[in-house]
From TrEMBL:
SUPFAM superfamilies found in the cross-reference section: FAD-linked reductases, C-terminal domain, Nucleotide-binding domain
Protein name: UDP-galactopyranose mutase
InterPro entries in the record: UDP-GALP_mutase (IPR004379), UDP-GalPyranose_mutase_C (IPR015899)
Keyword presence, Isomerase: yes
Co-factor requirement: FAD
Gene Ontology CC entries for this record: cytosol
Organism per entry: Nocardioides caeni
Protein family according to the UniProt entry: Belongs to the UDP-galactopyranose/dTDP-fucopyranose mutase family.
Presence of the UniProt keyword Isomerase in the record: yes
């Protein structure tokens, strides 16, 4: 159409949809959401696998958790949540251990029962070989926190596979802490609220976009050569949640990302591994973890095809051009480039940059939603409701 919307949102992930929903529902603005994929929802998108009835998260398992009251109230407007609590196990040399590191893991790994104080003393002794403040790389830092035996079993191989870099060459500040719990608590997340959307992620994401003032245009790349951007740039405010380097045509160089290849198999067994996520901690197993999606929704058991299950294996590698960017690598070089992109972003009239790609930050879903709500409060609402100047001010989501 030739009529301009009030706001263009590039990207239909949680960041973009939260901005669109607030501007449409709260301010009555006409919002056009442009999405280059064939579906909305960004990386949280999921599909029900038709043969088995199992919901598969297409871009890796997504577990929702938050302690942010405002985010929890907001997300509950669009979906109910199950009472799922995430737990992760790790396989190493033919044994299965309970992660994160806790008394169950310590007892089975060292083959002996320890009281909490005995376990604490054991780890203190094993980690005494390096002082944390002298650690110069990830390996030394990890050993200084948990000791060499646990590091070599559970961190070394997994980290090398995930980063394709020897842990002695990774920066010590990738791990600020490695939690060891001296009790049997093996919940993965510490947040106040946790659960999975009762009827799936896609239903949740679609309800956010389900407003008469919101139009979602799929298969539309804002940066495509046929000039989609020119229709809108400088004419209406734009919230851009795609990769910040791509927006500027990679003028300062590409930011580096890791991607994950997800290989899916439908197996003729009812239950493959008895739980949702099992990490592969051995260095010589090529994947980092195995996901069995039916276990995320035990309450749906009656709707699953008996005797079948969906298993996804994750293979991590550096992202090349055209790969999905998943985790920012964040080398010193990346950080220098990012500063230059932030300067460019701050000067870009009528464009706000947000979300995990727009800010080059790993954001959990609740963080992306919280950041979008604060962009709405601090920039969009003051502009549209009170006529305040739209200050690009670089990136949001800090
Ligand atoms: P995205 O969801 O990436 O959405 C950005 C959208 O912009 C995409 O749909 C993309 O196609 C679109 N786009 C980009 N460029 C253009 C363009 N030029 N034109 C049009 N459209 C464009 N979070 C959790 O809370 N719990 C988890 O367990 C969890 N697990 C994760 C596992 C993996 C493997 C990954 C990668 C992420 C995980 N996350 C998890 C994080 C979660 O995916 C993010 O919080 C969420 O995706 C952020 O939303 P966003 O809108 O910023 O970005
Ligand atoms: N990690 C590890 N062994 C494990 C789990 C995690 O060494 O069994 C380390 C690894 O360095 C990894 C980091 O912790 O990069 C974060 O873990 P992960 O990426 O699995 O977290 P998630 O993707 O679940 O947020």
């Amino acid at each position: 159409s030739t009529e301009l919307p009030d706001l263009v949102v590039v990207g239909s992930g949680f960041f973009g949809l939260t901005v669109a929903e607030r501007c449409a529902a709260d301010l009555g603005l006409k919002v056009l959401v442009l999405e280059r994929r064939h579906h909305l929802g960004g990386n949280a998108y999921s599909e029900f696998e038709p043969e088995t009835g199992i919901e598969v998260h297409k871009y890796g398992t997504h577990l929702f958790h938050t302690s942010n009251e405002r985010v929890w109230e907001y997300v509950n407007r669009f979906t109910d949540f199950t009472n799922y609590q995430h737990r992760v196990f790790g396989k190493y040399q033919g044994q299965v251990y309970s992660l994160p590191m806790n008394l169950a893991l310590i007892n089975s790994f060292f083959g002996k029962s320890h009281t909490p104080d005995e376990a604490r003393a054991l780890i203190a002794e094993q980690s005494s070989e390096i002082d944390t403040k002298d650690a110069t790389n990830l390996e030394e830092k990890a050993i200084s926190l948990i000791g060499r035996p646990l590091y070599e079993a559970f961190i070394k191989g997994y980290t090398a596979k995930q980063w394709q870099t020897d842990p002695t060459e990774l920066s010590a500040d990738i791990i600020t802490r490695l939690p060891v719990r001296y009790n049997f608590d093996n919940r993965y997340f510490n947040d106040k609220y946790e659960g999975l959307p009762v009827d799936g992620y896609t239903a949740w994401l679609e309800r956010m976009a389900d407003h008469p003032n919101i139009e979602v245009r799929l298969n539309t790349d804002f940066l495509s050569a046929d000039g989609v951007a020119d229709e809108f740039k400088g004419k209406v405010p734009i919230v851009y949640t795609g990769p910040v380097d791509e927006y500027f045509d990679n003028s300062e160089g590409r930011l580096s990302w890791r991607t994950v290849d997800l290989r899916t198999e439908i197996l003729d067994v009812d239950d493959y591994q008895g739980t949702g996520v099992v990490n592969a901690n051995d260095a010589d197993v090529p994947f980092t973890r195995e996901l069995e999606f039916k276990h995320l929704h035990p309450e749906r058991a009656a709707s699953y095809t008996p005797g079948r299950t969906v298993v996804v294996r994750e293979f991590s590698r550096f992202a090349e051009e055209g790969d999905e960017p998943y985790y920012p690598i964040n080398t010193a070089e990346d950080r220098a480039k990012l500063l230059k992109y932030r300067d460019l972003a701050a000067k870009e009239p009528m464009v706000l940059f947000g979300g995990r790609l727009g800010t080059y930050k790993y954001l959990d879903m609740h963080m992306a939603i919280a950041a979008a709500l604060s962009m709405y409060d601090n920039k969009l609402r003051p502009h549209f409701a009170d006529g305040a100047e739209l200050k690009s001010g670089g990136v949001d989501g800090e």
